[in-house]
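Entry for flavin mononucleotide complex. Fields follow.
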Amino acid sequence: MKGLICYFSTTGNTKLACEHINSKIDKIEFDYYDITSSNEPNFSDYELFGFATFTDYFEPGKLMVRYMESIKGDGKPAFVFNTYGQMSGNTLGSMARAIKESGFKLIEAYSLHVPENYPPLI
Ligand SMILES: Cc1cc2nc3c(=O)[nH]c(=O)nc-3n(C[C@H](O)[C@H](O)[C@H](O)COP(=O)(O)O)c2cc1C
């Protein structure tokens, strides 16, 4: 089975976590899609999706929200994932709502506490 992880990562925490998730899953071969790049993959090539971003003021990064709202899930399974420095707030809930509204079937959601990258708090 082929999967696609769509991620938004400014300093690399979320990207590194996605690579770790991929390394721990056996039967699914994941490709990655950096949503800030222009070469969007063909969604019909994939059966499982992941959406991953960092927490930006207690919410998902805004680019990721806009991206999730712009795509069509067609009932395919998807998980949502975020990294955060101190308080994740509404991040996971907002991501879950966005992908369900886009027509994906939500199968898992997880927030990972990682090192802070918000300059005033470092
Ligand atoms: C502008 C900005 C706002 C942030 N807001 C939050 C926040 O509200 N809560 C939190 O726990 N972490 C917050 N963080 C920390 C990041 O979510 C965290 O370090 C994340 O792992 C960064 O991921 P990345 O390296 O993939 O971009 C913020 C970071 C930045 C730069």
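NOTE: The pocket of flavin mononucleotide is lined by residues 9-14, 54-58, 83-89, 114, 116-118 (CB under 6 Å).
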